[in-house]
Amino acid sequence: MMKYTKNIVLLGDSAVGKTSLIHRFVIDEFDDKYISTIGKKVTKKELILDAPDGKAEMNLMIWDIIGQKGYRYSQATSFYDAKGAIMVADLTRKETLDSVLGYWIPMVLRILGPIPIIFLGNKADLTDEHEYGLDEINKIAKSCEPFGYGRYAYLSSAKTGENVELAFQKLGEILLERYVPVKLNSGLRLMDKSEISTVKDALDHIMADFADQFGKMEYATPFLQHQLSISNVNLQSPTKESVSLFIDNLAKAEGLYKEAFTSEENKSKRHVILKSAGD
User: Which of 33, 96, 161, 174 is the 20 to 30 Å CA partner of 195?
Assistant: First the structure.
């Protein structure tokens, strides 16, 4: 049996149910505890797929990415080299579908090029609260199809399991076709003051800079989560005061494994970035 390993990413706004979908798919249980993911969490799931010469084993490395809009550098660091994506919108919040079209698809194209994408309208079980339906999701999927990256759309429910396994299975089948994405130049300029206009921009760059030096975002994530927590940083509306404390706490953490001048240099550089941001 041939064996393959493919990296895939779940993308969508905060609280659309990405983490619960992964939990349902991997261990077939529903977990509705909301987790605001910083960077990414990686989960592994094995699929057995039909291949022209028999069966194939595919290990999906499933990346759960931070869903707060505005952290495009941290997000880009997190999902670079993904070979496929599942775009998740919340059926009870129309603005999350708008984000798929206006934020998440452009980001994927900018960083990865036209990789295969499955579109999900999640929380299908909350029928009385729906603000749109499958027709609207299909329109987005079909509008992407001529460009080679949109093909399938489903309504899903992490609570009931509706179409959850089907979505991952279908993406695995597409990846088995040995689709090779076109790599595009991301054009992202990390820690460039001309890219900074808000405190959220500054925080995004600071987290991505830390992860870049640490090695990979998944390795840096526990450190970032802890420092954000003790610094009382609100990802939705970070303040200069909390991010300043975050920078100082990062420097203390870096001082445990880096030479003193390096951690102080990073601290100074990050404070300069923060000062360049507006309120």
Answer: 96
